[in-house]
């Protein structure tokens, strides 16, 4: 508002005195300054105060003394003597009248017809009329503002423009607003004053006389303001008025600026207030302007960012104006930039005209105290150009380039400044426009390469700008321009739209002048590894560069060995794991196995040697971190998996990389490391899950579910307390305690109980002593508690060192004859032939705690054997096939071995192993001759299934809780797991068959045996009589255990098959088939009574066939058929009087009679006995 330039505004000193009612300060004001504050002071002196204190009474006297010598006070007192109530009523009537008339000024209640202009009327009027004139004019402006719908207008008002009466009008305005606040809200009055000339002056006087309204007025003006204030006259007037208010009250300027940002209105005002702000501390690192604009453009509020960016873009479209806030801002920023440039670079202070370039050849360094400010300025200019679309002038571009190519001191802030400068060059390559500037940039980049190592060592930072240079060079060589853009944006900390085409000039400079690919690879290997690399170290590190070079295969192209660097970096790692380590290992493995090109199959990297791997896991003078060990383990497992996966491609190239030996794998504590990783999952990122995936594929025997369940920490206060007070037990006293069994049982028990409180990792030193003493546990009279505790310790060790523990245990449990021959098995022996586990001391089979260990090892080695054979098949198949293809060239008629045959042979071998293990375990379940004499039977689990009338046999001496019974339960649990894992094993075992005496045990003890119902029809269809008999016997137990609809249908089929076989079998085979199968019909009828008719018909049919054969030889002295028909038709008439069933009895035959009888005669008696059993079971059920 240039129209009020000659007027005197209220000073900040005077405003502060009014705010605090500081009478002493007010007395020190000059007469012109005091004149502006008279309306408030006069009201203060005349009105009755709310403060009745003595101090205010004294202050009031001073104010009256101060006013006594001022002539204008009389006119203000006269104004206050008016009846304001009547004036307000007239004003409201006038408002209503104007509202009805549609805003026309035809009639006025406040002011009658004016004879002269407003100024003359005001001069000649009494105080009341002056009030009425001013109020009428003000209400007219306020009404027009309300009806303007936000469109700005400037109303010409003689009253507010006459310089002679401005002070009197201001007095009237202040008195009106103070006395009629409901009619004239101060925010509305302030808004109206913006539409008249000298409005900002009137506004400042109004607020100065009502100082408490400052914030309210400012917030109202900002809320009603434009989103872009420099676009319109109204916006500029509003900004200027608020700027004057803040100059009057500078302590509130930053709060007003915060309101501007909050409302996203008047961006020019925010900048202007920042330019006006003078901080108390002049030595701030970053200026208020840089901080404010950076906060708007780089903050998280996208709405504010868009709003301010629009201010920059719109401001550039207008011609350069010195009054424009945007150009004032740019001018100030340029002055700050020039002020921190090294003196030899630019001693020129720019003016409003063109800037002449002076002294651009010097290279003195940037001062240390200016580095942080320079970095902030660079980021701000990046935001202005990249986000807000600022187009720098030639002057700005030149000075920016001078700043970017300056050389900071070797401090962390200096490293940051160089990184920012480099990224700004990449983001805005248009800053380099002339050949001289391009040469300057190349010289600066060369200086960066030369000084990188010194900066890193002197600044003490791990992430220097050297890695960023290498990384960008690699990206340029591999044409990954999008990656360069991501790198630039992440370093600058802002999202900038960079066109890949704009990087073409920089790409040429990098790839042809500064960093050729060979230079990049040679330099990368010499870069030192990052010490204690972890995710806590941010920025761009050597590992990023090496990773990109590995991906682009630069090392193999130029025959540069990178193995040693990768190994050293893996050894220098700690938690939390850096996110780039796993991708680095994967890329390294790929570069080992896959040649860079088909033309040069030898162009691969070298793998890490076995000795280097062993050094990581051996506990010597240098102890490596758990992170290093886990990463090396991941490397080995992933390398082996990728080697197998790429066997076909390697075979075509006649290339076979070396696999790591089994001896090396045996020395790595895989399970222990994975267990440790389980507790560090948060710090290891995805490494733990990657290791589990590799283990499940290549080492399934280390991923047994029961092992994970058992791996629980010792918890509870008492066990932990005992563990803390636990004395150290030497491993060498462990073995003698075992050798004194059973007399030394109490001492050994105390040692074992102490060991149970240790963690599995702490038990490792005792593993050899424990396994070496396993055979001593098999001696008679060893307490069961010792056996169970030893089993618990073994299971604990199994969670951390399973493979070595298994080998030691298998060797310790060999029979004494083998121990004398000193035959020691290796891990490889046991994977090739898992059945070695079962070739142990026979006493193991009747020692349940040790048998539990043996079964655990057997299950693990069966899984390990599968993985071993699968791996062996992949390793040899493609190379064998390749050699066969080469050897068979030119030999017609020589067939190749098809791949499917090898797979089938492998599956056949695995099936044979599994079935052999099952058959051996089933054989173990059979009682020995001594146990049979003691009364142990295998059908103890299923006593109630068989027997006439369901009568149970007497329990054997000693009860069911015997070692045999416990071993049978353990074996059944393992067989249940095996049958679930692979149902084909169950089918194969039952097609092979096993002793009929074991059927009660297997059916009752293996829950998953019900799957046999699926293949019993197929087993019945086999031509061998033994398999058909076994199928019917198995079915009889299954029907009793699982009385399901499916069992009923299979039982019907079995009865039908028996009837069919009756018609085709010879006399001798008929006897062999029906004698063991006829008793099974009792179980069919007991499980499914509806089968009674079919079974009775079959029995009668069999009886008829047999009796007819007997009749051809001799007279049937026993009316057998007649009895059978009677039993079939009237089975319930075998009930005695009184309705109670009695036990049916057959005519007693001596053993000699039956043994010497004809087979058909024996079969006839068997049929009759079966009938009786069926009837007895039926009656017993009733």
Automatic annotation (TrEMBL):
Query: What keywords would UniProt list here?
Result: Nucleus
**Protein origin, superkingdom:** Eukaryota
- Gene Ontology biological process terms, A to Z: snRNA 3'-end processing
Q: Which InterPro entries does the record cross-reference, listed alphabetically?
A: Int2_metazoa, INTS2
Q: Where in the cell is it found?
A: Nucleus
User: Where is the major localization of this protein?
Assistant: nucleus
Q: Which GO terms describe its cellular component?
A: integrator complex
Family statement drawn from the similarity comment of this UniProt entry: Belongs to the Integrator subunit 2 family.
Q: Which PANTHER family does the record associate with it?
A: INTEGRATOR COMPLEX SUBUNIT 2
Designated name of the protein: Integrator complex subunit 2
Taxonomy of the source species = Eukaryota, Metazoa, Chordata, Craniata, Vertebrata
């Amino acid at each position: 508002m240039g129209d009020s330039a000659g007027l005197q505004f209220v000073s900040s000193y005077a405003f502060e005195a009014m705010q605090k009612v500081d009478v002493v300060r007010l007395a020190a004001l000059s007469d012109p300054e005091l004149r502006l504050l008279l309306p408030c002071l006069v009201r203060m002196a005349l009105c009755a105060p709310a403060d009745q204190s003595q101090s205010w009474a004294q202050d009031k006297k001073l104010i009256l003394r101060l006013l006594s010598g001022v002539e204008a006070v009389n006119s203000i007192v006269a104004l206050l003597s008016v009846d304001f109530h009547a004036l307000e009523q007239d004003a409201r009537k006038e408002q209503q009248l104007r509202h009805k008339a549609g805003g026309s000024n035809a009639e006025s209640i406040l002011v009658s017809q004016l004879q002269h202009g407003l100024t003359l009327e005001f001069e000649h009027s009494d105080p009341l009329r002056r009030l009425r004139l001013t109020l009428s004019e003000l209400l007219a402006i306020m009404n027009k503002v309300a009806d303007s719908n936000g469109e700005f207008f400037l109303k010409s008002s003689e009253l507010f423009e006459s310089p002679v009466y401005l002070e009197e009008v201001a007095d009237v305005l202040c008195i009106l607003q103070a006395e009629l606040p409901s009619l004239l809200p101060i925010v509305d009055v302030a808004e109206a004053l913006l539409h008249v000339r000298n409005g900002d002056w009137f506004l400042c006087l109004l607020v100065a006389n009502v100082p408490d309204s400052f914030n309210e007025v400012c917030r109202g003006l900002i809320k009603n303001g434009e989103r872009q204030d420099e676009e319109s006259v109204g916006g500029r007037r509003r900004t200027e008025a608020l700027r004057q208010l803040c100059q009057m009250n500078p302590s509130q300027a930053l709060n007003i600026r915060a309101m501007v940002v909050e409302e996203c209105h008047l961006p020019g005002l925010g900048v202007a207030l920042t330019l006006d702000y003078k901080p108390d501390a002049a030595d701030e690192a970053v200026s208020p302007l840089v901080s404010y604009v950076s906060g708007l453009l780089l903050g998280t509020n996208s709405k504010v960012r868009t709003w301010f960016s629009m201010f920059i873009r719109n401001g550039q479209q207008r011609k350069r104006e010195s009054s424009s806030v945007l150009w004032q801002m740019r001018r100030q920023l340029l002055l700050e930039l020039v002020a921190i440039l090294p003196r030899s670079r630019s001693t020129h202070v720019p003016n409003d005209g063109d800037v002449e370039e002076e002294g651009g050849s010097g290279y003195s360094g940037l001062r240390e105290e200016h580095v942080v400010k320079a970095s902030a300025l660079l980021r701000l200019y990046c935001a202005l150009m990249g986000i807000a679309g600022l187009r720098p002038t030639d002057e700005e571009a030149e000075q920016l380039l001078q700043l970017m190519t300056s050389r900071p001191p070797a401090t962390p802030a200096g490293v940051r400044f160089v990184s920012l400068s480099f990224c700004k060059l990449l983001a805005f390559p248009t800053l380099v426009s002339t050949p001289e500037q391009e040469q300057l940039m190349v010289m600066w980049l060369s200086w960066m390469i030369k000084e990188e190592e010194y900066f890193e060592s002197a600044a003490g930072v791990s992430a220097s700008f050297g890695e960023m240079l290498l990384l960008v060079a690699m990206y340029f060589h591999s044409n990954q321009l999008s990656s360069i853009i991501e790198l630039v944006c992440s370093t600058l900390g802002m999202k900038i739209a960079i066109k890949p085409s704009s990087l073409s000039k920089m790409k040429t400079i990098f790839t042809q002048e500064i960093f050729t690919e060979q230079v990049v690879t040679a330099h990368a290997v010499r870069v030192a590894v990052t010490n204690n690399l972890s995710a806590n170290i941010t920025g761009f590190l050597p590992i990023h560069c090496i990773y990109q070079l590995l991906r682009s295969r630069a090392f193999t192209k130029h025959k540069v060995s990178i193995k040693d660097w990768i190994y050293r970096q893996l050894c220098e790692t700690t938690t939390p794991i850096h996110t780039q380590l796993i991708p680095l290992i994967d890329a390294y493995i790929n570069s080992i196995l896959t040649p860079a090109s088909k033309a040069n199959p030898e162009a691969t990297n070298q793998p890490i040697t076995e000795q280097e791997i062993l050094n990581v896991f051996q506990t010597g003078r240098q102890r490596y971190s758990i992170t290093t060990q886990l990463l090396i383990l991941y490397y080995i497992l992933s390398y082996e998996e990728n080697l197998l996966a790429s066997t076909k491609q390697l075979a075509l190239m006649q290339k076979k990389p070396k696999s790591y030996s089994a001896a090396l794998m045996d020395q790595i504590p895989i399970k222990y490391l994975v267990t440790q990783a389980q507790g560090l999952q948060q710090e290891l990122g995805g490494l733990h899950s990657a290791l589990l995936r590799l283990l499940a594929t290549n080492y399934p025997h280390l991923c047994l579910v029961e092992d994970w369940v058992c791996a629980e920490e010792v918890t509870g206060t008492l066990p932990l307390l005992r563990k803390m007070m636990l004395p150290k037990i030497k491993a060498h006293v462990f073995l003698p305690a075992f050798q004194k069994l059973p007399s030394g049982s109490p001492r050994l028990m105390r040692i074992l109980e102490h060991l149970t409180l240790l963690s599995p990792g702490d038990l490792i030193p005792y593993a050899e002593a424990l396994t070496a003493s396993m055979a001593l546990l098999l001696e008679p009279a060893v307490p069961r508690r010792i056996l169970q505790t030893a089993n618990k310790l073994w299971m604990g060790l199994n969670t951390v060192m399973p493979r070595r523990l298994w080998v030691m245990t298998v060797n310790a449990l060999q029979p004494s004859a083998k121990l004398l021959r000193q035959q020691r098995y290796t891990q490889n022996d046991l994977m090739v032939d898992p059945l070695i586990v079962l070739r142990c001391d026979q006493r193991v089979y009747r020692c349940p705690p040790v048998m539990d260990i043996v079964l655990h090892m057997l299950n693990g080695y069966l899984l390990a054997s599968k993985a071993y054979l699968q791996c062996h098949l992949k390793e040899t198949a493609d190379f064998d096939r390749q050699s066969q293809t080469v050897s068979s060239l030119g030999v017609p008629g020589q067939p190749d071995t098809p791949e499917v045959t090898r797979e089938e042979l492998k599956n056949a071998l695995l099936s044979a192993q599994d079935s052999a293990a099952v058959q051996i375990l089933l054989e173990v379940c059979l009682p020995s001759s001594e146990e049979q004499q003691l009364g142990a039977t295998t059908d103890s689990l299923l006593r109630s299934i068989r027997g006439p009338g369901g009568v149970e046999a007497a329990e054997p001496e000693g009860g069911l809780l015997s070692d045999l019974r416990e071993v049978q339960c353990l074996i059944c649990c393992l067989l249940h797991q095996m049958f679930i894992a692979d149902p084909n094993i169950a089918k194969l075992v039952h097609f092979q068959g096993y002793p009929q005496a074991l059927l009660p045990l297997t059916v009752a003890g293996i829950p998953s045996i019900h799957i046999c119902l699926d293949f019993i029809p197929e087993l019945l269809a086999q031509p061998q009589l033994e398999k058909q008999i076994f199928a019917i016997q198995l079915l009889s137990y299954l029907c009793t255990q699982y009385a399901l609809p499916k069992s009923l249908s299979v039982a019907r089929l079995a009865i039908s098959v028996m009837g069919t076989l009756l018609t085709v079998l010879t006399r001798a085979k008929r006897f062999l088939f029906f004698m063991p199968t006829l008793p099974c019909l009792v179980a069919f009828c007991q499980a499914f009574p509806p089968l009674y008719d079919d079974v009775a018909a079959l029995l009668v049919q069999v009886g008829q066939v047999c009796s007819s054969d007997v009749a051809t030889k001799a007279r049937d002295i026993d009316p057998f058929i007649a009895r059978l028909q009677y039993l079939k038709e009237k089975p319930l008439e075998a009930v005695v009087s009184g309705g109670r069933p009695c036990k049916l009895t057959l005519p007693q035959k001596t053993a000699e009679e039956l043994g010497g009888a004809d087979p058909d005669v024996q079969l006839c008696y068997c049929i009759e006995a079966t009938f009786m059993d069926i009837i007895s079971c039926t009656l017993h059920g009733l």
